[in-house]
Each structure stands twice: as structure tokens, then as C-alpha cells.
Amino acid sequence: EPEVTQTPSHQVTQMGQEVILRCVPISNHLYFYWYRQILGQKVEFLVSFYNNEISEKSEIFDDQFSVERPDGSNFTLKIRSTKLEDSAMYFCASTQGGPSGYTFGSGTRLTVV
Amino acid sequence: QKEVEQDPGPLSVPEGAIVSLNCTYSNSAFQYFMWYRQYSRKGPELLMYTYSSGNKEDGRFTAQVDKSSKYISLFIRDSQPSDSATYLCAMGRAGGGNKLTFGTGTQLKVEL
User: Fold this and answer.
1) B97 CB within 8 Å of a chain A CB
2) What average pLDDT does this structure show over B23-34?
3) What integer is the mean pLDDT of B14-38?
4) Residue B46 above 90 pLDDT?
5) By three-state DSSP, how is residue A72 classified?
6) Long-range contacts of A71-76 (CB under 8 A, 24+ apart)
7) Per-residue pLDDT at B7 exceeds 90
8) Interface test with B, best of A30, A32, A45, A103 (most B CBs within 10 A)
9) Gyration radius of chain A over CA positions
10) Please, which pLDDT band fits residue B96 given cuts at 50, 70 and 90?
């Protein structure tokens, strides 16, 4: 079964450093997303990406965040200057459109120290 | 009022029991409703989705939506220890770029 692949599975970074989280969405999907889940809290939407541009972003997705689809397969989330409160699981997701096949990756656990 | 409310549990049931998981929502713009299962430190796994009010069945799982009451449910029949996980409801708006709004999740434990 097709899956969304995320790397790395765990990343530890110093506060103030830049991190890039990587995702390979399902190949025929058109919409791409980043969500995050702080430990013990709900999954929260960060950003959606369609047709090579951001289609929607949440209040969490401020200027320190950016997304990119540098080639036909990868989808990345960059956090420019990490803060302690950025520590969370970050999930990439993709879909062709609508709820059918809305698939999440296994996540990257980001720990900011 | 939160957009999506879900009892966090934990909910503990014996093997073979029927489990009922529920969410309420306040935003009438939500048009599709999903249930995900999440194991510890893993990504959400889509179980079911539905657009309309009524029931949708898939194996041991039944999703129920009541748009007039803004209430959705997931029923698990003949629950198994392998069903032990956190169950997340999620909702989206048509034309909303497919952004999902999640509940907090209900932690379920099915005991032998």
C-alpha cells in the first residue's frame, strides 16, 4: 500500500538552529500538508500546499516556517530558528483531494534543547 | 467553545465488547468526517471517512454522523487487544483546501 515517508524519524537540535524536515508524499497525490502534535495534545494543522504554492496556513505557521517542494517527489518543512516550544511530532500528509486516501506519514519527532 | 470536542478517556473495555467513541463539533461548515487510529508515537492511520449523515460500515467498524446534532460516532464491534490505540476524529470543509481539524483523541485499551 502506498505510504508517506518522513525523514528523519527523530531530530535533536539546539535552540536557534535551523532544521529541515523531509517528506515524500504518495506519488499521485496533489495536496500536501504539515501538521504537528505537541506531546499529549491534539494534532494541529500547520500548512497546506497545492499547485506549488501555499493554499492555507494556520496562525502557528509564522515567518520562521517555510515549505518547499524542490522536485517532483520531496516536500520539506523548514524551521529557521527553532524554539523550545517547537518540540513536537511533525506529520506530513497527502491526498489526491478530499478525505479519500488522506494519508499521514509516521512523523518526525523534533526535540529542541 | 472548541470546534471539535472529544472525550480523552482513557476508556478500558474487555475483549469482545462493543466500543462507542464520540465527537461533537460546533462548525456547521464541516462536511466530511473521518476517524483515525494512532498508536503511540506513530502517525494517524485513516480508518473511515464519510460525507453524509447516517451510518457507514466497514468490517467491525461503523461510523455514524448526525449533522443536525453535530455529533459523530465510531463503533467497534468485537473489540480486540490490537484495537488498543488512540482514536482521533477529524473534520474538513469542502473547498477548504482539505485542512483537517482534529479532536484531542480518545485513548482505548481493550483488555484480555
Assistant:
1) yes
2) 94
3) 96
4) yes
5) coil
6) A73/A24, A73/A25, A73/A27, A74/A22, A74/A23, A74/A24, A75/A22, A75/A23, A75/A24, A75/A25, A75/A32, A75/A49, A76/A20, A76/A21, A76/A22, A76/A23
7) no
8) A45
9) 13
10) low
Identify which of B32, B98, B101 has the shortest CB distance to residue A48: B98
Q: Give the per-residue pLDDT at B106.
A: 96
Amino acid at site B35: W
Minimal Cα–Cα distance from A16 to chain B, Å?
25
- Most A CBs within 10 Å, among B52, B56, B99, to test the A interface: B99
Contact A48 B99 (CB under 8 A): yes
Q: What is chain A's mean pLDDT, rounded? A: 95
